Structure formats: structure tokens, C-alpha cells
Protein 1
Amino acid sequence: MISESKCRRCEEEPGSDRAIRQILSECGDLDTALCSPALPAAFPISFVVASPARPANTKRCQGHRTPKGSGQLLSARGLFLLAILLVLACSLVSAQDFKLGASIRGFGFYALEDSPYQARRDTEFLIFRLVPEVELNKYVKIETHLMADVTSPPVSPATTLATGSTRTYLDLDRNLIDRNDVSSNAALDRLNVQIHTDAFQLVIGRQAITWGVNYFWPALDLFAPFAPGRIDRDYKPGVDAARLIVPVRAYSELQIIGGVLGPSTERDLALGALLRWNVRTVDFGFMGGSFHEDKVAGAFISANLAGTGWRGELSWTQSGDPRDWLINRGVFWRGSIGIDRQLTPGVTLIFETAWNQYGASDPRDYLLFVNSDRLRRGEINALGRYHSGISVNWRFHPLSTFGSTTLVGWDDQSVLWIPSFVWSTGNNSELLFGGQLGFGQEPGVTGLPQSEYGSTPITVFAAFKFYL
């Protein structure tokens, strides 16, 4: 058994990564200080850590418990949801314009080798999305995305290739089926009211928000960014916020956002602004604010020079999480630069390289970060510090495209390769085939990752998409 005094020492003693790693090793089981091994669905497949569940008995876990007064919070959320649904119902009667769209996507994954992170080699995933849009008049519109999914088995890291989720404040999801071999959930991924005028645009409710300009590792995007290896990017998870967009000149705008990016109004409150300024073929961006108790500031630049798109972004974070200060990550920088170019009429290229000062420079220190709260919520999608990614798409036939995505973790010399083939079977349907292959050091006997992408089993997949 591991004494509580030793676990407390793991939490309270600051020092270097090497010193903390030594402290953790003295505690016996290496995941003692992690409290909970569960990771969000938005996590890349190679990051999922399998370790037995255990009671959380340290102060570190208290920050993740339901806050006092949660019952009152849930009641307030329920009343807010009821008000929105009443507005939506009334709007259907008085709507000037009503559009109804839908999509259904199905994925099948099969791992060609055993993995400690999934009990079965096969995974099936089906998701249905209903998209009604109600336009009350030329100024007001209501956007709604109703989702329902079926997954077997209920928890599988393979699904992160195709979908993702994020923490939310409003309780807009329900579990329909909860069995050992299958689960089903329904949720509202979008539910917002949009007000458009010549002077401003205001969006209130659950919505998709994207800051930053890069593809794989956007340093400025704190609103449920896509995982670098995500193959299906049709829909970004929605967050609960109010967003005011004010045009300041041609192709330039100011965005002001206030929201709650999780279940707690204390820990997950967000208030920030982004100024986007255009000068000819160059866009500049400056952002700042408070997110999850962090103080964040950053900037980006995006330009088109000689037929090539150039992008760069840099962010500075002062963490409000005391656990980050214990591992010498109280203040850190992140950045990425990338290019995109159409090489031929049928071939496009995206290249990006990123620097993540929050990550570990020594793979032996991955333990310190694997259950970090900012990794769990998907804000950062890397354990190491230095990464590069390249994506090439070749449209060799009007109906067929071959794609190849390669991600490299330079700290541990690991590689993830995701080849894919897309066949457009009609104006509103397509088939997708592909796989993912991870190269690098495999997990140790404890199941903890020894490299960024070496934990990923060789997996093949097939999918279909149909849009109405």
C-alpha cells in the first residue's frame, strides 16, 4: 500500500522534472499522483493510459469533484435550457425561413495487434446529426445540432480518429444505452441564437469557436481544438459562450467572448478578446484573456506570398492551476509555424512544426503530464515539446482522393502515419478507407506511454458519410 504521506509529498514538493520523477518513483505505483486514469474522448489515441481505477484520496482530486451547490447550478442550467427550447418552439411557428439538414456517418476500426488500451480489436461507431436552422427575420437566426451516437465498445481510443468532445457547462446530453458492450448518447452540439446587424454579430449559446490559424497544433485555439490526427473535421465540438463580433474595417474584426468552458463557474470561466487586423494579403491577430483561471496572451500572422500560405502563432500562459507550478510549468510558451500550398492542380500540401514548452523534453517525464487537466480537456494535444506534421492530398480522379498525414514527435523519435483514400459516391455521400501506424517505443509493463506515438496499434478503418 502507498501511504497518504508519500502521496502528499508527491503533490506538495516542487522541483525539477527529474526531482519530481524521483519523488513519484518513491511512491511505488507511478500513477498514484494521477488520481484518475480516465482521459477525454478528444485525446489522441496514443495518449490513453490504461491503469486500474482506484479511490481518489489526495488533495489533487478535490479540484475535480462536484462543487458545493452543484444542485442549484443544475437547476439554473435546466431553466436556461427550458427557456431556449421554448424560444425554439415559438420560433418554428413564426419563422420566415426554415431549413433542415442531416448527416449520418459510420466508422469501423480494427486493430491488427493487441493493445493495453482497448479490450477488443474491433470498434464500431455510428453518429447521426440533425441540423435545423430557423430564420426568424433578416436579423435573428437559431442554430441547432441534435446528435445521437452508438459506440461498441463504449470506450475505445480508436474513435478519437473520427470524433471528439469537450467539457461543457449546460447539461445538454443524455445517455440512452449504457451496457458493457455498447453505449448510446444524445446531445445538442449546437444550440444558439444569432443576431446579425450591420454594426455587430452576437451569438449566444452552444457554438463552435476557432481562434488561431494553424492546422495541427494551433496555440491560440483554447476552444476544443481538433486532435492533430483527427481524420473527420466536419464538425467541431460546441462550447457554451456568448460571442460578440464587431467589424472594425474591411476584413478586420474584434471578437469578445465570455463563457463557461466546463461544469464549474469558478474553474472554467472564460473571458477574452481577439483582434483580427487585415493589411492587404496579411492578417494579424492579437488575443488575451482569462481561461480556466489561466492568464493567456498571444498573437498570430497569416499571409499569402507567391502562392504559398504562411501561418504562425505564439501564446504565453500563466497557469492558474497550482499543480502546474509543482512541475515547473507555472508559466510557459507555445507556438507553431506552418505553410500550405497547391503544388499541382490535384496536389495540396500542409506542413507545420510546433513547440510546446508545457510538455516534457525527456520521455521519462511523460508521467508528469499524461493526466494534466489541460491535456484532459484537449487544450494541449502533446506530451513532448517538439513536433512536426505534414499532410499531402492527391486528387488523382474527380471522384477519388488519396491522403497521407504524418506526425513526428522529435523528443522520443516516434511517428504516426495515417494514410487514407476517399471515394465520392455521389453529390452527398462518400466512402473512406485508411489506417494508422504508430512507430516508436511501446508502453512499458505499467502501461504508461514511453513515446508520443509508439503506443498506437496498427489499425485499419472504413467509413461512410451521407448528407441530406
Note: The mean pLDDT is 83.
Protein 2
Amino acid sequence: MNNIPFISILIASYNYAEHLKKAIAMIRKSDFKDFEIVYCDDCSSDNSVEIIREIINENKDLQIRLIQNKSNMGILKTKTKLINECSGKYFMICDADDYIAEHCLDKLAAVAKKTDADRIVSEVYDIDENGRIVQKQDIPRITSKWLWNLNHGCLYKRSVFVDNEIILDFIPDDVCLTTYFSQYSKSVAWLRKPLYYWCIHNDSAGRNIAKTQHKDKVIEDFRETLEKIDSVSQKLNSSDIQQVQLLEIKLYYLQIFHALKDYSFSEKKLMYRKLKNIMKSHNGEYLNNYYIKNPGKMPLRKYAKYIILFSAFLEKFHLMEIGLFGYHMVSKVIRFDQ
């Protein structure tokens, strides 16, 4: 094995001790062995560090490195730190409560070696706490590096991140990474196979941000996200700008229909009005986006595409609050996801 591994698998964790053994066990099953695991514990209050040290002792043949933050840094700073401190040609982010498919590394590495692409993307299974598949996040027919915003099941060329001194500084962290990375990325390879299992559970941080935050913080975070993404789009050509604006529209509608899903209807309505004001102030012409007018060319999965088109239709005819009430009632009995 080379001193510099081909892949660095990065695990940022806070209080996920119960999931670590399975995550590492699935990585160990891989036939591809040219990798390191870099685990960063963000001052967990459970026994995560004890568990990872036990795993290291039991797997002497694996390159596993433990990093402990001296204070709780949060997911953005912790992932930035991991990327800068790993040593692989490519890095892969694996959340502590998720796991990879048995041949994930083999298949991703094969594509990386064949194409030398800056980013290699695979499909993802969403699973529940019992391991049952909830949905497959399939790669759409028309692809866009700007609009596949999952960290999961991807390889990123580390030099693109480090050489351009990227710092993750807004949430959602996966949108932050993919947006900043894409402005420097020259090539993406797409692998239409599900190679990653994303566990969706009650305390899944990425899907419950709004539930655990003060409402004002949700609003300000959304405003900051748009501003950060806009700072990237100002450097792009017109085609890329339309796609980045579509990303902002996607985040806007998914914020309404997913981040606010546990709110009361009156709270949903109030938050929608605030989010709409931010969106209109940011881009008053968002309903005239090229892809909303040309949905057949929209480089998104069907679900996100339909959410955007239906929501845009409701907004154009000032029916969004009625639609929001219908969603509020139906979501009590039917599970909606991204």
C-alpha cells in the first residue's frame, strides 16, 4: 500500500457511539484496501472515543486515525478540519450513523482511476433505523454538478478543496461543500448504482435543523445560505448561474416543505411568509427561472422537480398558503422526504 492512500474516509461524530462499529465493519468488508479512516470526535459526551479506540485496537491492519477536538466545533469546522488533515488523493465523507455498501469503495475507486474526475457521484439509499430502504436517491437523466447536493456516496479530489482553500461556513453542510467545490471542479463522473446507506432517524441532524433551532435562527440561516451561494454565482457564466439559481429555488421550497414539517400550520404560514420575503428580496424573478419555464430540461430528481413546479404554480396564482394547509394535513398520515 502506498504511503498516501487513494481514499480518505472521513467520519465526523458527536454522540454517535452506538453506530460506529457497524460503520467501520462495513468499510472493512471492502475488497479495495487503499484507504485510510480519519475519525474526528467533536467532544462527544457519550463513549464514542472509547469505542473508536477499541475499534482501532481490534483492527490493527486498518489505517484508522483518531482526532479529538478540544472543544465542540460544530459540523462545519469539524468537516473542514478533517478534509485538511487527511492525506488521500480523494476523500469521502461518511456520517457516523451511516454505512457504505460492500463494494462501494471498489466501484468508486475504479471510476476515479479510469476518469481522474474531480468528483465521483453514486446513488444513495435512504434507510430507516431498522435498515429498511425508504427510497433510492437516483441520479436524474439530466445531471448537474450544482444540483446533486448529497455528500453521501461521493469521492472528492482533495487537491481541489485544499488548493482553493475552501472553508465550510454555511448550512446545510452538504450544499456548502458541493457548491464551493463545484466552482473549481472541472469534471464529474456519474455512477448510477446505489453505494451508500443514509440512515434517517429521529435525531438525524441534517433533517431536523429547523426543529431544534429558534425560528429566527432558521430565517437567518436561510438568508445567509442564499448570500453565500450568490457569492459563488457572481463568478459564473450564464448557464451555470441559472442552475445555481435553481439550487436556491430548490432550497427555498424544500425549506418550506421539509425543514418546517413539524411546525403547526400557523407557524408554517408565518415562516413561509418570512422565507418568501427573503427569496423575493434576493431574487425577485425566481419564478421566471429558465428551468421553471423549461421543466423538461430541469437537472433534478423527479421528486424535487415536482415540488418546485407545483410550488411555483401555487405561488404564481397566490395559492401557496392553501397548498401549505393541504400539505400540513396530508403529511400527518403520509411521509414526505427529499
Note: Residues 7-199 form a domain with the Spore Coat Polysaccharide Biosynthesis Protein SpsA; Chain A fold (CATH 3.90.550.10).
Protein 3
Amino acid sequence: MLCTYSKLMVGMMCAVFLISPLASDGAELKGDTLQTWDAYVETATLQMRDRAHATFLWVDESPDRIHRVRDGEILVSSIGDRTPKPVPSGLIHDWIGAAFIPHAKLEDVLSAAHDYDHYKNFYQPTVADSKALGSDGTCDKYSMRVVNKEAVETVLDGEYQACYLQLDAKRWYSIAHTTRLQEVRGYGRPDERDLPPDQGNGYVWRLYTITRFEERDDGVYVELEAMALSRDIPGAVRWAVTPVVRRISKNSLLTSLRQMEEAVRSTAAAGNEAKPSTVAASGYASAIASRTK
């Protein structure tokens, strides 16, 4: 699901640099910035573990939220009182989105989430290339090239790890993060090259997502909390840029959650076409569960 937030972040940061050319100068990730980020995502992970034993879904914390999502609305909200959140020499962006996919099965949603080779088809035109790199127990590794041509052309090459945990027959969650993220210079030209990690314009330095899946009410609820670390916005233009950043963040997450539902429908249709030529397909969720034994 990191493709969703890669798209969101690239589009958002390009809006920043369109408004403020001063911000497009190079930036390098500093040690205290990374230390603050590591502490932030550790706290988010601990909160997710608490959710596993309490109220699992964010939408269930409010009757209004659950009714709106159940009726087909995609909800997107920032986390906390201030987003993006200033940290030493950087910004932390933290958003959550929730959607309900009616008549879907959990195994179809998980199958689409694991179909890394087809992310480039599901999330066009932002994901230019994607590839599964293998699995290790309950964790998958994959790569993506994310391209954004709005305002300032931005291309990011990255590798990711996503780990899936099953709580019971109807509830799963995943935690995913970047293991490598590099800005591409000269995209599509003979002199194309990847910059060293943590160098370049600082559009996105780190990505981290927590995704929750629950099958009930004749469908599947999907919640995505997406966090990213980026360079700071100059104080002189922050007042003008922040509303634009928030609007693009919200719209990008809405679009990506809609694309995710289309990916689920596509995966389910492909699975149904394949079933007549197979014998008693066990379902993707069962296959994943077997890897935990």
C-alpha cells in the first residue's frame, strides 16, 4: 500500500516547490531529523498493537464515521492537530483514509495488496514500474518507480518491505516501510541516474504505512494510515503553502483508495475466471496464514 502514499507525497511536495522555488534546492537528511522520525513511527506501531486488543478500526471510534463509510463515502483526515508536523530540519506528514468495499472478500483484498507485479497497472500513471522481490515468512519485499509530472517532474526509485499479521479469520493488518528510496535525475534520458539515498531535493525521505483490513457487513473495511518524512518548507512561504499541501494530500489519498477498490475488483474477477481450471482454490488468505506456521 505504500504506492498510495508515494503518489500522495510526490504530488504534494511538487505543489510546494511550484509555489516556492526556493525550496527546490538540494537537501540532505540530518541525523536528528531521522531520530525524530524513528521515534514517531515506533509510537505509531505501538498504538497499532494496542488497537489489536481494543477498537481495531478508526471508523468504529465514531458512529458518524462508520455510517458514512458504510454508505460508500471515502473518509480522509489528518492525524493530530497539526499536519504536516515540523521536526528538526524536516516535516512529518500523517494522514488516514478509510473505505468500504461492498460485497468484497478479505482474500480478494489481500490478494490485490500482495500483487506487486501489477501495481504498475493498478496505480497508473503514477507507478511506472513495480516488481515483487520475494518473501520472508510473513513479510514481502518489492520495488516501485513512482513518477509525477505535475509542476516539477519527480521520479523516485524505491524498495519496500510489507509485513502482514492476522488477528483472526476476519481481521488483518500490515506494516510497510521503505528500505531504500532514491531520487532519479535525468529520467528517460541517456544520462539518467539514481542519486545516493537521503540526497537530492528531499521530496520524500521515508515512508511508513499501517493498513487495517476487516471483513464484515457484507464487504471489507480498509483503513490506511500513511506517514512520510520530507524536507521543511521555508518559513516565509509556509502560510501560503500549507493549505495547498493539505488539499493535495487529501485528494491524492482519495484517488488512491478508489484505485485500490478497482484493483480489488480486477483481482477478484481474474480469480473467478481462473477457478474453473483449478480444483478447490484455497484462497489467498489461507496461503498467507500457512507462511506463519
Note: The longest helix spans residues 238-274.
Protein 4
Amino acid sequence: MLSYTTIIVSYIIYTYSFDVIDAATPLVLNEIKRQPFRRPFGVGGTPTTNAYHIADYGTADAGTSLGLMSKMVDAVRERSVKEDAKKYGNNKREVVLHYEDQLT
């Protein structure tokens, strides 16, 4: 049986983890805006041949970071519509999320 202290500490950690992610969200989304997209590889390459990768380590069930991941994917797709469509006539850049609970 869990002690009262364990339950309180777990609740605090859980609650503050969302606060940390909320505080970091504007920074992360700003970096997506600033970071250059890599050019597609090969002759006739398109944005779909050069995916944008996002990694999240130590995620457990990803419940805490899922909202941020969704915002990141939306930001990449929004930017892709603006930039890739102009350059390549294609705005379907693939976004790959790497979720890993174990750092091995």
C-alpha cells in the first residue's frame, strides 16, 4: 500500500511536469520556426523523401508530452505548407516521432 507521502510526491511531480512542458513549449516551437529544413535528397527529391524527426526519451506512456508533440507536428506541417509548397510544389513533409521509454 502506498503511503500518503508517496501519493503527494507523485502528484506534485506529475503536476509540475506539465508546468515544465508548458513553460518550454514556446521555446520549442520557436526553434522549429528557426531551424532550417534539410533539403530533399537526390534528383527530383521531395519533402516526403526527407522527414523531420522528433525524439522524446523517457516518455513512459507519453501522456505528459503528447500535447507538446502534437503542437510540434502541427508547427512542422504549417511551416512545410508555406515553404515546401513554394519550393517543391509539395507540402507533405513526413514527420517521424521517436518515442522511447528506455535510454538504451
Note: The mean pLDDT is 75.
